[in-house]
Amino acid sequence: MKFFPRRSLQFKVLAPALCFVAAIMVLGAVVAILLMNDRVQHELEGQAGSVASAVADISEHVESEADLQRVVSAMGAKPGIELIVLAGGADPRVIASSERVYLGKKLAEIPNPQVVDHLTATLAARADVVGISKRPEIFDYSKFMRIGIPGIAGRTPVDGAILVHLDSRGIRVTVLNYVLVLSSCIVAGFLLVVYLSYWLFDRHVLRPLEKVERNLGAGAEVSGEIDIGPSRGDQIGAVAQALNKAFREIKESQRRLATLMGNLPGMAYRCRNDEHWTMEFVSDGAKLLTGYSPEDLVASARIAYADVIHPDDRARVWESVQAGVRARKPFEITYRITTASGEEEWVYEQGRGVFGEDDKLVALEGFITDVTPIKRAEEVMAKAEQQERLQLLMDAAPVWMGISVDDVMVFVNPA
After folding, report:
1. 122 near 162, Cβ under 8 Å?
2. DSSP annotation string for 165-197
3. pLDDT digits (tens, 9 = 90+) for 63-91
4. pLDDT of residue 2
5. CB-based burial of residue 134 (10 Å sphere; 0-12 exposed, 13-18 middle, 19+ buried)?
6. d(Cα 76, Cα 93) in Å, to the nearest integer?
7. Nearest CA to 131 among 3, 41, 254, 204?
8. Higher pLDDT, residue 126 or 150
9. What is the phi-psi region of residue 296: left when phi exceeds 0, alpha when psi lies from -120 to 50, beta otherwise?
10. CB 207, CB 71: distance < 8 Å
């Protein structure tokens, strides 16, 4: 048998079913025992009653005790049957018996106390008495009768009793076999029902769900669709359709996001807050910005982003980011990087910390863009402004002034 993880759907379905079958089997065994005992009792009473009634009927037509003895001996010759016929009156005695040891004995002389008790109870009650002997394999049945054989009370009918001893082992074995066969059929039927139920459940529920699970990790990424076989109109088909719709929406959203990020003049990122700024995600703009591909930067496969930052700016970048994380506010930094080709570029970064449900920092997310042209323009403007201030200062001087570079006069004031 295939074993399933405890939390799997197969285990949750199969385990209760097997427990149910086990309970049914135990209940069936109890019922079988009760049915067996009841059936054995019924069979024994029927057989013993038939034998006793037959002897009682024959006793009305025999002419002597010897004739009755021959009849009792013949009937008692069958395996598992013992017969004792007791004539009542003032001094009850055994007038016929399949066992010679009882023949002719008075009631008080019978060596088996249980036989004495049964016969005495039958005569006293003037009714049939059914009982089980001290040996469980023996069944006793005493039938009350009126005996009118010549030579017994002058043909005047007297009270009498017939005790039938039956060996119940044969009947019990037969009934037990019958009950076992019946119980086996019932258990087999329940097992078949459980198997068919599980087969149907596996075919129409588990297998489609497994296809959904496989497609969630494979097919859905490629085609955006979950294939569960032929078109289904049940709940699983509805779930698959809902998931397909969600996948299409997610795929469209991913496409839009990829288009947007691809058109951005910079690099979107998600990284850990560690000394290497280990990247978990980097957009395609990383190649144009740093000269390194996303594959080079993610998980620091080729180079850590911390090594891309200019050595003189690394400490300042770290402090600025940590200040923003502590304040749980966005951070903004302008710093230098060294590209893959060795060039120095200026970048502007804006980002913020991402916190989980436990209020712990999970990652940093943000965007980095190239501001080198802006920094170059600022430097040119600053230089031009400085030259303009110098020009005004020299023009206002009352004496002649000049500036030479490599023995070449480049500036002279009007004075």
Report:
1. no
2. EEETHHHHHHHHHHHHHHHHHHHHHHHHHHHHH
3. 788 888 888 888 877 777 788 887 877 78
4. 47
5. exposed
6. 19
7. 41
8. 126
9. alpha
10. no
Tokens, residue 46: 């029927």
Show the beta-strand stretches assigned E in 110-261: 129-132, 138-147, 158-167
- Which of the 8 DSSP states describes residue 106? B
User: Quick one: DSSP state of residue 152?
Assistant: S
Position of tokens 């055994």? 94
**Residues for the chain: how many in total?**
415
Tell me the average pLDDT across 121-140: 74
* Rounded alpha-carbon distances, angstroms, from residue 259 to 95, 283, 284, 295: 116, 11, 11, 19
- Gap between the Cα atoms of 51 and 112, Å rounded: 21
Is 88:159 a contact under the CB 8 Å cutoff? yes
Number of C-alpha atoms within 13 angstroms, CB side, residue 249? Answer: 6
- Give the tokens for residue 207: 């297998």
* CA 240/CA 209 separation, integer angstroms: 9
Whole-number Å distance between alpha carbons of 225 and 213 = 12
- Residue 299 backbone class (left: φ over 0; alpha: ψ -120 to 50; beta: rest): left
Contact residues for 397 (Cβ-Cβ < 8 A; gap 6+): 413, 415
Q: Is the pTM of the predicted complex or chain greater than 0.90?
A: no
**Contact, 345 vs 368, CB < 8 A?**
no
